[in-house]
């Protein structure tokens, strides 16, 4: 019985090692149905009452279940952007769908570049992963 537990333990250990090694930072958010990743770098937000800017900020990006909608959670008290819908155009370029906002978002496995302006509010990010 001890041998069975030893063999089972080895299989669990190998499975765990394999599973952890398959989680990489080079996952491309434009190519995956589900994605979560943290980008670090310059982030800012401005509106009529706020002007927040830092070179040491973070943006946590998630691609939610629909496969076309993204959430952007910023550090430093910057409001989140949730449920933004994009479609892929070309290699790793996401274009916003049905938007009345001024938007430029380029996201891939290594970097996030964003300018998003709507209703007098502007979010910016120039980050890497």
TrEMBL record:
Q: Which domain of life is it from?
A: Bacteria
| This protein's UniProt keywords | Signal
What start and end residues bound the annotated signal peptide?
1-21
Protein name per the record: Lipocalin-like domain-containing protein
Q: Which organism is it from?
A: Chryseobacterium formosus
Q: What is the lineage of its organism?
A: Bacteria, Pseudomonadati, Bacteroidota, Flavobacteriia, Flavobacteriales
């Amino acid at each position: 019985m001890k041998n069975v537990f030893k063999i089972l333990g080895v299989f669990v250990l190998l499975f765990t090692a394999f599973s952890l090694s398959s989680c990489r930072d080079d996952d491309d958010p434009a190519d995956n149905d589900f994605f979560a990743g943290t980008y670090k770098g310059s982030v800012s937000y401005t509106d009529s009452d706020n002007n927040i800017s830092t070179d040491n900020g973070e943006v946590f990006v998630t691609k939610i279940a629909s496969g076309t909608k993204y959430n952007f959670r910023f550090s430093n008290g910057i409001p989140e952007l949730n449920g933004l819908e994009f479609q892929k155009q070309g290699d790793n370029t996401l274009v916003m769908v049905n938007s009345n906002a001024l938007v430029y978002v380029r996201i891939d496995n290594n970097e996030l570049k964003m300018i998003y302006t709507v209703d007098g509010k502007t979010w910016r990010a120039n980050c890497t992963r």
